[in-house]
Write a structure and sequence with these properties.
alpha+beta, four-stranded antiparallel sheet, two-stranded antiparallel sheet
Length: about 375
């Protein structure tokens, strides 16, 4: 029950922060905001400002920022959202995504604040034997820059992109003495080992170097981890479009609540085994998941799907083209129809994913 409450609170905070991003940007750009709400459903507390009504609502599952003319698509008020310059509307639409990304970044930075050293993608030695000075063209001191064309920021990136390759070889780019050197067809077949769970895992056969972290190093680490989360979301979307994953591999609110419980229990068990507070261990794992979900939301909201911020940005671009070609924008009612249809499809997908999550819990 505790993990369910934590998950609901997590979703509520992330969505409320997203809407606060829109709200803050709208105010800075001089757009009239009719209501800013934390939570959904019936009002519990509300207060009227100069022009904006601020409210807390019953269900802690998000919030909204109601700007003048946003729903109707038009308004006679010069401060209405549709009547503002395109660049101001773009800033407002991107602000929600930016707030979610910033939230994820700050959570990661807090989690890494106590980290003093990390493994880095630099060759410190070889698992084949300490006496070796080079291995298939790799040399001690080489920094692995890319695997099969994918940039390597963290040591974990190496395993990620090796696992998505052909499984037998990879093309590496390394930095050696300030120069970039390409190592084509680095053979992986003889370097397959077992991970802690006994499953096969492709490895390079190297020992990574350890690097102590300064304040700047922690900032870079948090940034690279955030960028990695963005790349993981795009990889997942690509797999979904290509058919590599299906509906059963997707998770909605029910599945994510289950994930919160799972990572919380794993964190608690790991912490208890080390003599650390089980609650603290659970919260660290949950905050890591929260950071990933927050950054996931920022990326997903950029997709050109009606009812999402990316959909509104797409319509802005279409209207810009129509205005340039024929001197007038799309009729707002058509945009509303498409947005409503897109929202209905989005809700249908969420329902399907939720049903799938429930069936998986029952082993169906």
């Amino acid at each position: 029950m505790l993990y369910i409450l934590i998950a609901i609170l997590m979703f509520g905070i992330l969505i409320a922060l997203h809407e606060f991003g829109h709200f803050a940007a709208a105010k800075l750009c001089g757009v009239k905001v009719n209501e800013f709400s934390i939570g959904m459903g019936p009002q519990i507390v509300h207060k009227r400002g100069k022009e904006t009504e601020y409210s807390f609502r019953l269900f802690p599952i998000g919030g909204f920022c109601a700007m003048e003319g946003e729903e109707e698509g038009e308004s006679s008020d010069p401060r209405a959202f549709p009547n503002r310059p395109w660049w101001q509307r773009l800033i407002i639409l991107l602000a929600g995504m930016g707030m979610n990304f910033l939230t994820g970044l700050l959570i990661i930075l807090c989690l890494y604040s106590g980290v003093t050293a990390i493994n880095v993608p630099v060759v410190a030695g070889f698992t084949a034997g300490e006496e070796l000075e080079q291995f298939q063209g790799l040399e001690i001191g080489d920094r692995i820059v890319s695997v099969d064309g994918h940039a390597i920021y963290l040591t974990g990136d190496i395993a990620l992109y090796l696992s998505r390759g052909n499984g037998s070889s990879a093309d590496l780019v390394v930095e050696r003495n300030g120069q970039k050197i390409t190592i084509d067809n680095f053979q992986l077949t003889s370097q397959i080992g077992e991970d802690v769970d006994g499953a096969n895992q492709v490895i390079l056969g190297i020992r990574p170097a350890v690097e102590r972290l300064s304040v700047i190093g922690r900032l870079k680490l948090a940034w690279f981890q955030s960028v990695d989360y963005v790349r993981m979301v795009w990889i997942s979307l690509g797999d979904l479009v290509s058919g590599a994953v299906g509906l059963r591999d997707m998770s909605g609110p029910v599945g994510i609540i289950g994930m919160v419980g799972e990572v919380g229990r794993e964190g608690a068990q790991a912490a208890a085994s080390q003599g650390v507070s089980a609650f603290l261990g659970a919260m660290v794992n949950i905050l890591q998941l929260t950071a990933f979900i927050s950054i996931n939301l920022s990326v997903m909201n950029l997709l050109p799907i009606p009812a999402l911020d990316g959909g509104q940005i797409f319509f802005m671009a279409v209207n810009g083209v129509l205005l340039a070609l024929r001197g007038r924008k799309m009729d707002p009612k058509y945009q509303n129809w498409v947005s409503m249809a897109g929202f209905a499809c989005l809700m249908a997908l969420m329902l399907a994913v939720t049903v799938s999550d429930i069936l998986k819990k029952f082993g169906v």
